[in-house]
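#struct-pred

JT: dropping the chains for the assembly here, can someone run the whole complex?
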Amino acid sequence: MTELVFPAFYIVAAAGFILAIKWMSSPATARRGVIVGEVGMLLAVVGTLLRHEVVNYQWILVAFFVGSAIGVPIAYIMPMTAVPQRTAVSHACGALASALIGTAEYLRRTPHGFVMGALILETLLGFLTCTASLMAFGKLQEILPTRPVTYRGQNFVNLGTLGLAIGIGIVLIFSPEQTWLYPIFVALSLLFGILLIIPIGGADMPTVIALLNSYAGLSASAMGFALDNKLLIVAGALDGSSGFILSVIMCRAMNRSFSNVLFGAFGTIQTSTTAATARPVRSATAEEASEILDAARSVVIIPGYGMAVAQAQHKLRELHDVLTKRGIEVRFAIHPVVGRMPGHMNVLLAEANVPYDRLVEMDEINPDFPRVDVALVIGANDVVNPAARNTPNSPIAGMPILHACDAQTVMVVKRGMSPGFAGIDNELYYMEKTLMLFGDAKAFVGSIVKELNTAVAASR
Amino acid sequence: MSSYEVGIWVFMLAAFLGFELIRRVSPLLHTPLMSLTNAISAIAVVGAIIITGEREASTLTRILGFIAVLASTVNLVSGYLITDRMLKMFKKRGRESD
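RK: done, full complex below.
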């Protein structure tokens, strides 16, 4: 009887996960999706605890208790700006779990053939994703340098390490009794994870985080093959394809290939070519900026990672509110790769209570720019750089950009004239119609809001 | 058909289903989507429970299993809760009152 019940638990759980992702397609159904995912997970855990081979509960319950004691505060205290870091840590935890389970399986029964192959794949992906995610965390938290670090023969060293790890893995598949090889295999996998992230810069983090998401999922799927568990295969495949699609979307939004992101070390090539010739720019004060905004009919705000750093999203919402109240149309233009993970800006603006129907995707807003009176760029740089369209030999040539340069007036809030992450000078700043607003993003937007409010008070 | 062969079929179909479903997710929700799939990948807890709870488990495999249950539980709990916390923030115009 019980043998019939357990598969049912797992099948319903898998259906729950599929529905959870399906309902993520729209904000209206997404929360329902989370609930159905939670129910699926509960069924999977209960179904597993009831299995007859599970007899020893105390360690499991202690781990549940301690894990929840760590997980709940993380979920509620974590500020939204730290979401990319949390995601990186969570990839590391998931990959570590999967790698350790694979190791325990190997130690327990030294499997052969197909199962050993799945185990090797599981532990290889698990260990490398674990260290790679920790490195990504270090870069996002700025414990490690966010600029790409490169050295001579780097690709050779990286690919050599990976090749050696795979080679030893293959030997282990054919003769699993050579247990002394296993620690070497683990060490090489861990090392490759570190080497993989060293040359990757902060601007490429959205792609890399998505790719690590995919690896963690594939590792769980391989575990499903090793343990002959279809639920693990399904859940891992869903996670793996999700991460893969997101990283493809990110790559496409930068007009670059996977190998270019992983081995290209973007941002080191161009730095010397644009000699710092001091060219004149027009700057403006908060008062002038607020007058121009007040006279506009249509305003598009273009946020970037700088907005997240300056925590300017709440001030931007105030700006949105005061302008909307005066009958001015305000929209936010979101480039697909802006920020440090896919969808980063959307979450920050949603946190600041900007209604989500004001957040517009690149393809939708670009044709509108010629009719936009003011494009206000906050902490974004490369995603509005016209060099992507006009300069064929630029490193970002061909990257789809937000056509802020087509707007009637462009205003750029910026700390100083330093080039962006990719180290490329931005033509946009030197255009006739561009006004530079020098200062801290949060403080500057705050003073624009104040000017607008006094103008409202004065006109009454 | 061997169990592994079935497994490969399951993997292929699930991967294609995943592609089709995720292509439809609006870029607006890419961050919560990633948290959700993270939480789903905490399904590794299933494998971890089996390893940890076994009768003949050695001390070493039990320790490895324990760490794995712990890591997956952290992911599972924080993953679902933070996804819901993010989704609560996405509001349409006219219902902004907090």
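JT: nice. The beta strands of chain A are 298-303, 329-334, 359-361, 374-378, 409-414, 434-438. The radius of gyration of chain A is 25 Å.
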